[in-house]
Amino acid sequence: MTERQVDKPVTAREQDIQAVSRTAQILGLFDPETPELSVAETSRRLGLNRTTVHRYFSSMISSGLLERVEDSALVRPGRAILQLGSFSLGRQRILQMAPAYMRELTLEIKISIVLSLWGTSGPVVSLVEEADHPTLVTVRVGSQLALNSAQAKVFLAFLPDQFHADRLTGSLPEPQRTETRRRIEAIRQAGMSSDVNHRGICIVAAPVFAAAGICATIAAVGTERMLPAALDSREATALKAACKRLTKEMGGTWPEATD
After folding, report:
1. Which residues contact 73 (CB under 8 A, 6 or more apart)?
2. Which of 106, 94, 114 is nearest to 208 (CA)?
3. What is the pLDDT of residues 141-195, one digit of tens each?
4. Where are the beta strands (DSSP E) in 17-153?
5. What domains appear along the chain, each with residue ranges and CATH number?
6. Is 33 helix (H, G, I), strand (E, B) or coil?
7. pTM exceeds 0.85, yes or no
8. Dist. CA 82–CA 66, nearest whole Å
9. Burial (Cβ within 10 Å: 0-12, 13-18, ≥19) of residue 238
């Protein structure tokens, strides 16, 4: 006598994984030759019943992943997907275009230049151009910067989703939270930031904007003797000018309040 195998109940975690997998499968059906989908076509191509596909369509429309095509039963990628695609293209473009600006800036001010992109919860150093200087101050590519760093505060000042920025700064302990938020407001007016850490390293940072908003920050990094903290210094002025030129090439707009 063989023991009958009893199906194990599907856990909530397994259901979540399945939902993410099916959502990815649906989104993966879109391409230049398939800009729109119907329930029937999706059901046929993925081997799912129509009720399941319809349920996923409704959920994905509610979350902005899909949107209905006017006067039809078809769907197409929604605003969230378009925004994500624009963001991804912007990251690729800035990494291709920024090195030339960074090299020119390093030669002009003789200071190491660092470019960071926004990660899941803060800036991540993505490009470094080291200065030809007897005293070398640099940062390792891949470094996650703290929320109270100069580049993080520039990002937080200009992130399109300010509710997200507030949630992040809300996680900081007092009095660091209050001071960080005060500095963020000052950065919105000045357009850039400068900090001197406990080791005497000065960081002057400015934003770069693409059409969808801030896409990167670029910072000059040096000792206090090498790099003045004043935002009207020669070095800070050169950094701001480079970021403005790069912003223009990226199709972005420098906020009027910072001019």
Report:
1. 38, 39
2. 94
3. 888 888 888 999 999 999 888 888 888 888 888 888 899 899 999 999 999 999 9
4. 66-68, 75-77, 112-118, 123-129
5. 12-77 (1.10.10.10), 82-258 (3.30.450.40)
6. coil
7. no
8. 10
9. middle
